[in-house]
């Protein structure tokens, strides 16, 4: 899909388990009671989202769109364990409330006082791409600034279940983290990057089919594979690990690299277990297509 109107990535933030400990969360969240109740996943997601918003007033955000492939696994596990231990009687509702998929989006809205469209997508390996599609459409409909992001976490119980299902048998590294982007209808700094288009495809693809997918996508912009620089998400995942919304981390790294790439356009390629595939075209601000 080629964006109908120009869409720019004006800010981006990434928080994972290792960087979370280095953040001054009390200065970011500014609500001790809310911070105390947040699990690790919510802390990562809220921190990344709030870092993107920073000094922007509540009325400067027109939509919040988030994504997750599995949601709050830690609190889901707590709630399910308690159901078993207490025979479904006298359950504590707090872990259930924290485990719902839209917890991060709603927490950001509450902390910032944002009262706008707020949506969360849970579409397995294409969760973040679905949120990104929505964010782009929001701007095409006249919105100025849209906060879009994704988050997922690792838990011991979930990792064991994934291993039993046959995952991570080929030396893959499991990952987690949260990445958020402030998308706007105009660039707000010299480091802004234009998000020119995106497309997705489901089902297994061999190398030839992947090249055809990329060629067909670029042809819609009058481009070929030789006229863009390719950013392979697999290289990023060697560092951050594989998880359902790792494509958000891939886009974060690609946006940081786009300004220094040798070509005017950067094609960001991502694949999740060869079942979900996405392409994002980034363009240097001011570069023509």
Automatic annotation (TrEMBL):
Ranges of residues in domain Beta-ketoacyl synthase-like N-terminal: 36-157
Annotated protein name in UniProt: Beta-ketoacyl synthase chain length factor
Organism of origin: Candidatus Cryptobacteroides gallistercoris
Pfam families the record matches: Ketoacyl-synt_2 (PF13723)
GO molecular function ontology, one term from the record: acyltransferase activity
């Amino acid at each position: 899909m080629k964006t109908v109107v120009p869409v720019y990535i004006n800010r981006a933030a990434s928080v994972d388990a290792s960087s979370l400990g280095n953040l001054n969360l009390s200065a970011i969240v500014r609500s001790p009671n809310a911070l105390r109740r947040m699990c690790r996943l919510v802390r990562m997601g809220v921190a990344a989202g709030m870092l993107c918003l920073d000094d922007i007033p509540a009325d400067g955000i027109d939509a919040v769109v988030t994504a997750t492939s599995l949601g709050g696994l830690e609190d889901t596990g707590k709630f399910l364990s308690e159901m078993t231990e207490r025979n479904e009687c006298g359950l504590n509702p707090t872990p259930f409330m924290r485990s719902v998929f839209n917890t991060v989006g709603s927490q950001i809205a509450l902390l910032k006082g944002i009262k706008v469209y707020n949506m969360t997508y849970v579409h397995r390996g294409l969760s973040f791409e679905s949120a990104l599609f929505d964010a782009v459409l929001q701007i095409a409909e006249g919105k100025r600034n849209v906060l879009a992001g994704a988050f997922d976490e690792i838990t011991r119980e979930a990792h064991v279940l994934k291993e039993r299902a046959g995952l991570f048998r080929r030396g893959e590294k499991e990952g987690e983290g949260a990445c958020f982007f402030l998308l706007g209808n105009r660039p707000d700094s010299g480091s802004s990057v234009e998000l020119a288009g995106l497309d997705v495809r489901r089902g297994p693809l061999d190398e030839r089919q992947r090249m055809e997918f990329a060629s067909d996508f670029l042809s819609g912009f009058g481009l070929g594979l030789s006229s863009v620089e390719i950013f392979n998400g697999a290289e990023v995942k060697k560092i951050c690990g594989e998880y359902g919304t790792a494509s958000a981390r891939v886009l974060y790294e690609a946006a940081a690299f786009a300004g220094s790439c040798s070509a005017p356009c950067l094609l960001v390629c991502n694949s999740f277990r060869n079942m979900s595939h996405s392409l994002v075209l980034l363009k240097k601000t001011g570069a023509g297509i």
